[in-house]
Amino acid sequence: METLDLYTGFQKKVEGRRDEFLRLLSQEKEAGRMVAAYGAPAKANTFLNYCGVTTAQIPFTVDASPHKQGKMLPGSHIPILEPAHIYEAKPDLLIIMAWNLRTEIEAQMTRIRSWGGRFAVAFPEVTIW
Q1: Which long-range contacts (CB under 8 A, 24 or more apart) does 78-84 make?
Q2: How many domains is the chain built from?
Q3: What b/e sequence results for 69-97 when a residue is b if at least 16 CB atoms lie within 10 Å of its CB, and e otherwise?
Q4: What digits encode the pLDDT tens for the residues 73-121?
Q5: Cα 14 to Cα 23, 40, 54, 61, 77, distances in angstroms
Q6: Domain harbouring 20, CATH code
Q7: Sheet (strand 93-96) strand order
Q8: Domain span holding position 108
């Protein structure tokens, strides 16, 4: 932690993750596919703001907490809706923003597979399945 190399390497990793995530969002939009998100944790909001993500790329996120529903993510103004909205909107890609809860959220949202929906996370690396 006392060398500049550690921090320079960290910066490059973060920039690479940002670029990869934005490329994913761009590819989905160019292909005419809808992207939505699940979760509204502070760590994800920080990442979305760093990436400059807007409602043009992710029109909404859902969260199980009734205290977050009906509000917007700070900065991006992405609306936070109740999880049932996923089944109405039928996104092609659901980005799990609470990546540490990926297994639980995937189990809850497995029904998105019925319309060909896929899952993605941005951390620990950008992954689609």
Answers
A1: 78/37, 78/48, 78/53, 78/54, 79/55, 80/40, 83/38, 83/108, 83/109
A2: 1
A3: beeebeebebbbbeeebbeeeebbbbbbb
A4: 999 999 999 999 999 999 999 999 999 999 999 999 999 999 999 999 9
A5: 14, 20, 19, 23, 23
A6: 3.40.50.720
A7: 80-81, 61-62, 35-38, 93-96, 118-121, 127-128
A8: 4-128
